[in-house]
Description:
Blueprint: E1 2-4, E2 7-14, E3 17-22, H1 29-37, H2 49-69, H3 74-88, H4 107-124, H5 137-141, H6 147-183, E4 188-193, E5 196-202, H7 203-224, E6 230-231, H8 248-260, E7 265-266, H9 270-275, H10 278-304, E8 315-316, H11 334-358, H12 368-392, E9 398-399, H13 401-409, H14 419-422, H15 424-437, H16 441-447, H17 453-459, H18 462-465
Parallel strand pairs: 6-7
Antiparallel strand pairs: 1-2, 2-3, 4-5, 8-9
Helix pairs in contact: 2-3, 2-4, 2-6, 2-8, 3-4, 4-6, 6-7, 6-12, 7-10, 10-11, 10-12, 11-12
Amino acid sequence: MALDAMTRTRTETDSLGSLEIPADAYWGIHTARALENFPVSKRPISVYKDLVRALAMVKQASARANREIGALSAEKAELIDRASQLVIDGEYHDQFIVGVVQGGAGTSTNMNANEVITNIALELAGRPKGDYAFLSPIDDTNRSQSTNDVYPTAVKVGLSLDLLTLLDELDLLRKSFLAKAVEFHDILKVGRTQLQDAVPMTLGQEFHGFATTLGYDHQRLTENAYLLYEINMGATAIGTGITAHPTYGAAVLRHLREITGLDLAMADDLVEATSDTGSFMSFSSSLKRNAIKLSKICNDLRLLSSGPQAGFGEINLPPRQAGSSIMPGKVNPVIPEVVNQVAFAVAGADLTVTMAVEAGQLQLNAFEPIIAHSIFQSITWMRRGMHTLRVNCIDGITANRERLGAMVGASVGVVTALTPFIGYAESAALAKTALLTGRNVADLVVEAGLMSRDEVLKQLSPARLSGLEAITAAIPIVQAAENLVVAREDTDDI
């Protein structure tokens, strides 16, 4: 041990020379060089805890496989296994300090994991940190492996784990919209196309549509998760499996499936799998789809709540903060706005992933670190965005019933419901007259002798205007769903 500026250090050596490493650090010389080389993002890989856990899972599975095939002694494999489990359980994550954006195709990340897990294992064995003659980060913890199979496998496992939390939050958000669909099931409003008045619907139908959209996205993300389940462990440097025992691949796959609980599968062509990153591009695209559709919903929420006096003013978003430093009483739709911005960032990250996938050359894509960072950030921001949208906005939305009722009562769009009975031409003429005179459509129809008062009122009932009670073979929009939405047979009371 040496003393440097009154700080205890240890000396570690690699092929480039020697460096002094803080004595209490679990990382080593390869990590230290990465800290010097990549002060770019100023964000350590530990910000993505599922990536760190996934790295430890890969090292644990490899230790078990190497022990099984005789490539590691039982003692060494056991130490690496135990150390990896501590990281999987959430310990020592502060030691994973290399930047998320780095050159070298992820080598610095792999070596950070090798060094930390090795030094934890050395402590478990009663040995000092850096005693690599007893247990080596490269010869033992990285046995039968290369960054080029460890890193993409760990990224895929980490993203799969992270996605589970996103899907949970997405489902909670969907259910919040469904709850509002129930609450607003009997509130008529004017539907709009191209921002112009169209035909009546219920506010509940509008919110049910939002919920359905999110449900579809949940399905697409779940389906695309399987894109991440193909791994290339045993490929080592370029897919030929050099330095790995022929039986290692099957063994490590079996152990990694058991450790992660994921339905992982070995790629058919390891050379192709080591160079190709198309699965990341496809998965990123599905995240972008969800983000953009969620952003569209937030646009609608901002429009519907605009005003409160000179806008649509149909719904009220919960007031979260004062909206202006100059205009007293102003309250802005800040929660939908932040979710919009998350969507913009996800779209940008997807473009980054696309460019990085394209930039791969020959037997390896060197740009997987920016791919990993981009997708992990997208998942993280989307999960947080969905959470704040749900708890700070959707759950507290209220409807302006009187304003909505007044707009429906004054709308000429209701004449559309009469076209099956009086024809399009007559309906168009009546609509024009109603707009010019401000008179009620029902009165004009009756005065023209086209329908009786009772017939008009029947066809302009809320249930029929919103499609809940079909009269022209229309399909009801709101149907029973998870016992939350009003069933068709209950609509007579609406």
